Amino acid sequence: MLYVKIHELHKRKFKVAQIAKELKISRPTVYKYLEMTFDEARAYTEQPLGKKKKLDHYKDWILAWLEEYPHLSSAQIHDWLLERYPDLLVGASTVRSYVKDIREVYQIEKKVNVRQYEAVPERPMGKQLQVDWGETKQKTTDNKEIKLYFIAFVLAHSRHKYMEWQARPFTTRDAIRCHENAFQFYGGRTEEIVYDQDHLITVSENAGQLLLTAEFQSYVNERKFKVHLCRRADPESKGMIENVVKYIKGNFADSRVFRDIEDWNDRALQWLQRTGNHQVHQTTKKRPAEVFLLEKQHLQPVSSLLSYESTNNQSITRSVSKDNTIRYKSNRYSVPLGTYQTMSENLVWIEVTDDEQQTLVIRKEANGEIITEHFVSLEKGKLIQNRHHTRDRSKGVEELKQRLISYFEDQTQAAAYFDEISQKYPRYRRDQFAIICKVIQQYPALIDTVMTKCMTEKLYNANEFRDIAHHLDTLRDEPVKEVQSFYANPAKHPHIKASTRSLNVYTSILGGRA
User: How far is CA 511 from its chain centroid?
Assistant: First the structure.
């Protein structure tokens, strides 16, 4: 399969580096398969691994991945197979055994770093959520390197996980926003949340009397959950989230190519559904997604809006998407064009008024000028868009129309002609005007004649305007061209007869005597 795929991409003019990136294999592997015949490739990949096995059909993929990334775990291999073949039904133990056999046969050694953790008693349902941050370096599609940052959540009982990524370091407001998204993802919150001593949420441990940052303290007071802060040099007390961070780095992020942050977050959620929360947990021997269905009933509900956002005129941030919208309560709300900037944080501050008809207020700065307002929609999955936030496409067309009118002597007639075209082709006005613009440039001396002809015959179409101009130009130039050709070579034009007149005719014309 790998041999066929490599040669197929090669025939489509893919470069070796592009083939390697597309198939997640090394360039030497691509070169190796390109130099092989089909029989040689089959012999190479069909070296015996004992009796016929279920994954033999995918052996060349697995072998190529392990040769390129020897450190890959069987769980990663399993995830990559499911990503490429979603309908593949195979257990984790089957993949683990098959990868082990391939490593032995082809002598692909894996380096294992073992970290010891103290056993932690199982937590009751809905009791505890653990949170931590991490960062990775990823290769981009243009073969550069970018640093990414993520926040990870895990329910202590079910091990159900959630994560969010961004391409800049987290701020306290980012942390609060991600907490809110996690609560929406889980459908509620736990009694307590466990953190490391991170500067985003804490100022000091203070011998057990925790000092949180003012912003995060306001958030905790509003959501009313308990904060459990780990002591320094005590990672075992939050070993679950430590393992989750390691799992995300080592399974999802490892060797995966970055395109853009929206795509990366979408793929992260797909990975959680496909692998992170679906595969059987090695400690509980259960699937986190299945256990979560029970634990979800023990979570405490949270409102979709923080009260201190609206009643105390405070707000939290939202990220502006490339299409100049923000997300709020499962809907998208537009912001003015140009709010999204390529080299900017792209954050806006929102608050919701506590009126009968709630209004979403959006600001560029926390206490800055309001850039837009929307009535809060009770529906879901909708785009609420202010018409002033779309491009004024008519402005450019109108300017083009006025410029074209200025080229004609009878501008009143021209204006009436272009109005007729606008009414007849409202969706294609710009295309119609562009054709006429080319005609004006090509036949400037004929455009008034063409306009009169079109208005007389009621031909309100740019293509007909162009055809008439071309026809008139042909009638004007053809006699001159033919006479010039005749004098250059009269033998080629026997059908042309030069008329003759008496000398008296010319004398009469010139006013002389015969």
Answer: 85
Helix, coil or strand: residue 165: strand
* Contact yes or no for 403/434 (Cβ under 8 A): no
pLDDT tens profile 28-82: 888 888 888 888 877 776 665 556 788 888 888 888 888 888 888 888 899 989 9
CA of residue 496 relative to chain centroid, distance: 69
d(CA 349, CA 366): 6
Q: Are 66 and 24 in contact (CB under 8 A)?
A: no
Q: How far apart are CA 106 and CA 66, in angstroms?
A: 10
DSSP bridge pairs for 150: 134, 165
Cα separation, 273 vs 138, in Å, equals 22
- The SS3 of residue 98 is helix
DSSP annotation of 24: T
Can you say how many angstroms the Cα of residue 38 is from the centroid of all Cα atoms in its chain?
38
Task: Give the residues across from 319 on adjacent strands.
Answer: 347
CA distance 483 to 24: 71
Report pLDDT digits (tens) over 216-252.
Answer: 888 888 888 988 877 554 555 556 788 899 999 999 9
d(CA 309, CA 452): 65
Q: Looking at 374-378, 386-390, 422-426, which range is the least confident one?
A: 386-390
**Structural contact between residues 154 and 123, judged by C-beta atoms closer than 8 angstroms:** no
Residue whose tokens read 């307590």: 192
Record the tokens describing residue 416, joined without a space: 């009436």
Other Cβ atoms less than 10 A from the Cβ of 38: the count is: 10
Q: Cα separation of 448 and 436, whole Å?
A: 12
